[in-house]
């Protein structure tokens, strides 16, 4: 068969490429080839095991493809003849004009002794594997999670809500250590402990115990944790197997791409977790995988498949995160203090702590803690925030300010809407109060 635009991979990145391409190239034939008959929403996977309780409630709705005249083929691409522009599937061949690789990522699983035991699971984006995990967890009493990043923490929170005895083991000094400064990590840990989760930070797993099925986890200090199920939330790696086979330029960070998501070969693009990322601040490779980044890349690729129709490109990966643990929401964007110091940035911190409603006597009022980083000459380079649900959107405002290279004085003059039930008071917006704190320090250092 023939198509104009062939997309390999049907997760959020592949879907977004297809939809963007349809908007920009309405007359082109667009085809997605996806290995799995059901595509998962990656960020929703932890919530299958508590809030949703069913795998099928976390699937991507394929109806949008048919409505937009995008063909979906459930098959696997095993090879690509780059010279003749032919993708070889297990059951067919497809000739194409433009090719987009959206092959995603795979769990990065350390070879801990005992990892092959029954009921030890990696976090795969595969419905049948997730169903197998769900069935095992339903029968389990004790669950040990290895890895304290976002996925591990969100699994711990969901499983604790579901009544499981949960332990989480992290080799670094804190949970969420790569994304937040210590005081924000401590908030997350405190909330998990309040919900009954046992936390072991600065600890390494020595081995996973059991005969046929897992029975426990032994740490290097000799302590043992009971386990009916072990979840390996130890990160992910780019799925570059097909790209390597095709001869594309790759590294451990993924498929090499330029700012328009073009690979080292003409007419071939790569987006999402399989594509290498570069830091917004240093342009060094950065191992970061988020659906929000993947879909941003997909919109760039989908707009510019045939020519640079619009000046949309990915200069660098900023990294805007948010997560929710119990009733605590955390967000981060750009550099945290630890990263800034490692990269040699001189910086100034602005902080605030305000109520998220006004008056504060309103029911459900929470404190919002904001921490912003500015370069010595006043450009915003990072932000962290903790509070209620409003944090999820406030962190996007902070990300926007960083990406547009906004200075503290300019941010301080922003006009921000408020409402008693939805925001802090107009006299004390969370971000603006932190900016004002930073401005005082910037000008104090200028005159010192």
List keywords for this structure.
single chain; alpha/beta; FAD/NAD(P)-binding domain; Enolase-like, domain 1; 5-stranded parallel β-sheet; globular
Q: What's the quick description here?
A:
With 448 residues, the chain is α/β, with parallel strands linked by helices. The chain has helices at 12-24, 63-67, 127-139, 150-161, 182-194, 241-246, 291-303, 337-343, 391-403, 408-412, 430-447, and strands at 5-8, 30-34, 70-74, 77-81, 86-89, 93-95, 98-101, 105-107, 120-122, 142-146, 165-170, 198-201, 205-210, 214-219, 224-226, 229-232, 236-238, 250-251, 254-255, 268-270, 320-325, 328-334, 347-355, 367-375, 380-387. The termini are far apart.
Topology:
Elements: E1 5-8, H1 12-24, E2 30-34, H2 63-67, E3 70-74, E4 77-81, E5 86-89, E6 93-95, E7 98-101, E8 105-107, E9 120-122, H3 127-139, E10 142-146, H4 150-161, E11 165-170, H5 182-194, E12 198-201, E13 205-210, E14 214-219, E15 224-226, E16 229-232, E17 236-238, H6 241-246, E18 250-251, E19 254-255, E20 268-270, H7 291-303, E21 320-325, E22 328-334, H8 337-343, E23 347-355, E24 367-375, E25 380-387, H9 391-403, H10 408-412, H11 430-447
Parallel strand pairs: 1-2, 1-7, 2-3, 7-20, 9-16, 10-11, 10-16, 11-12
Antiparallel strand pairs: 4-5, 5-6, 8-17, 13-14, 14-15, 18-19, 21-22, 22-25, 23-24, 24-25
Helix pairs in contact: 1-7
